[in-house]
Design brief:
The complex is a heterodimer of chains A (about 160) and B (about 210). Chain A is about 70% helix and about 0% strand. Chain A is mostly helical and about 160 residues long. Classes of the chains: A mainly alpha (about 160), B mainly alpha (about 210).
């Protein structure tokens, strides 16, 4: 019984692991921290898995548990926040893919996202993942109006960083 | 084009560059130990509840009860113990109920709220232990001095007779000692939970702004 549970969980997580990796990219600054957070997300998902009833999609359920882990449960091993080499370790931007201006803009955008607070990062992440405001509000436990207002503020914040 | 839309496009493109862990690598992780703050809060809270209960049991040895008898405080102490154990059990029950409610599958705000509530229960319990210990220490000191005067031999009476000034000094010094003790414990708490819960409190505040 336990073996079956382990097998079904690992198979599902292996399939949907991108969600956890993307959260790690937003919330951590180096590979070691990335691995550490990924591991904690896996542990939290596994602990909660017996209660997963399957009435929602595994991915929807995973967004919630993984974000909760990154925002609330995870204790960073290191206190230092390094954003200087962010694009080298987290978001590799290939120069030949974009024109100079877009490339520069993307670098600035990723740097700006890294500098946001934990909640704003969650909003941006869910937005980038094409989640509706209804889904965002449900994941974060806030009203839909609040989610929209906060998202607009984040957009303004990012715009002001890009166009000082 | 909206800046975030450019970012979204690139974000999707980057999915292909994400690391990929194998079935076995993920399987190995299931048995690693969690370092979540809930685990830390649970361990610290249980230690606090356990130590403060142990302390009150071990401090009340035979000599202590004999002393209370001499000071005519036996019934008072028994009453105090009954009340304080009742309150302790109530707090342990509340802590257990609150802890059970913590679930990583809740929405972010509810999860944070439940963690903070669990922590608050233990904090209130510690405040209760400290304040009640402080008050009972004052009561016992008062009766020690008072009854010592009554039980002391006549020739010693002058030595133990307390005038108004001496009483004022006694109360003042007891108050200062108690304040220092409570401040030290409070500082320790601030430091310990400040480190542990600072980020959580900040995120909860951030999440809840505009919500009222």
């Amino acid at each position: 019984m336990k073996k079956e549970l382990e097998h079904s969980f690992v198979t599902l997580l292996e399939k949907h692991q991108n969600i956890a990796h993307k959260i790690c990219r937003i919330y951590t600054n180096d590979q070691e921290e990335h691995n550490d957070l990924f591991q904690e997300i896996t542990i939290q998902l596994w602990k909660a898995y017996p209660k997963f009833r399957g009435d929602s999609k595994f991915s929807t359920w995973m967004y919630r548990v993984a974000l909760n882990t990154a925002i609330t449960l995870y204790r960073k091993a290191k206190r230092s926040i390094r954003t200087d080499n962010f694009d080298e370790v987290s978001f590799k931007i290939k120069a030949d893919e974009y024109d100079g201006e877009t490339e520069h803009q993307l670098k600035l955008m990723y740097k700006a996202v890294k500098e946001l607070n934990d909640i704003d990062k969650a909003l941006v992440f869910l937005y980038l993942e094409d989640q509706s405001y209804r889904e965002i509000s449900k994941t974060l436990g806030i009203s839909e109006i609040n989610a929209r207002v906060k998202m607009n503020r984040v957009k303004t914040k990012l715009k002001s960083i890009l166009n000082p | 084009m909206d800046e975030l839309e450019i970012l979204k496009k690139d974000w999707k493109k980057k999915e292909a560059e994400l690391p990929r862990l194998s079935y076995n690598e993920i399987y190995q992780m299931l048995w690693k130990r969690s370092s979540s703050i809930v685990k830390w809060i649970f361990v610290i809270s249980i230690l606090e509840l356990f130590l403060s209960t142990l302390l009150s049991i071990f401090l009340a040895d035979e000599a202590y009860w004999l002393e209370m008898e001499q000071l005519k405080l036996r019934n008072f102490t028994i009453g105090l113990y009954v009340i304080s154990y009742g309150i302790t059990f109530y707090f342990i029950y509340r802590f257990y109920r609150n802890y059970q409610k913590i679930s990583s599958t809740d929405d972010a705000a509810t999860l944070m709220q439940n963690i903070l509530r669990t922590r608050k229960t233990v904090k209130t319990y510690i405040a209760f232990v400290l304040i009640s210990s402080g008050i009972s220490a004052l009561v016992v000191s008062y009766f020690s001095v008072k009854n010592h005067q009554l039980t002391a031999s006549v020739e010693d009476a002058a030595k133990y007779s307390f005038d108004l000034m001496a009483w004022t000094k006694f109360i003042f010094l007891a108050f200062i000692a108690l304040s220092i003790f409570l401040c030290a414990i409070w500082l320790f708490y601030k430091l310990l939970y400040g480190i542990l819960l600072k980020r959580l409190k900040r995120n909860y505040r951030e999440l809840k702004t505009l919500e009222m």
